């Protein structure tokens, strides 16, 4: 089994979107309500929610009754959208220091060739990973009723109790 290290921001972004997707259409949730339900730091959750807003996945309404809502059509939100919203679109090896690998080779020509191989391997893996994320939608993990409709959950009531 292959294990991939994903950030907690990515997992929390998925959780935020699932919660918002389950809300009745006219409802929204405040970041404090979401962070309370998820049992995570409110300030950290706000940073993630801001990234989701900048990626046009959610919208925020600033008012007493405001909060966050899904903005993009649920059937169009891919896991790649979520990943890039919180992790960015930088290559996997962006800002990775390959110097330790370089130190294993004396000849500069060998260093260059071996670096190219390392970069090529990771670039191919990254492409495959992102292509796979692009083929899966958030709706695949949303709970549905027996008719196939996304369950609507009154999160405000659940959070208050």
Automatic annotation (TrEMBL):
Membrane-spanning residues: none
GO cellular component term, pick one: cytosol
GO terms assigned for molecular function: DNA-binding transcription factor activity
UniProt-listed Pfam families: Rrf2
Domain of life, source organism: Bacteria
PANTHER family in alphabetical order: HTH-TYPE TRANSCRIPTIONAL REGULATOR YWGB-RELATED, WINGED HELIX-TURN-HELIX TRANSCRIPTIONAL REGULATOR, RRF2 FAMILY
Protein name, entry field: Rrf2 family protein
Organism: Enterococcus phoeniculicola ATCC BAA-412
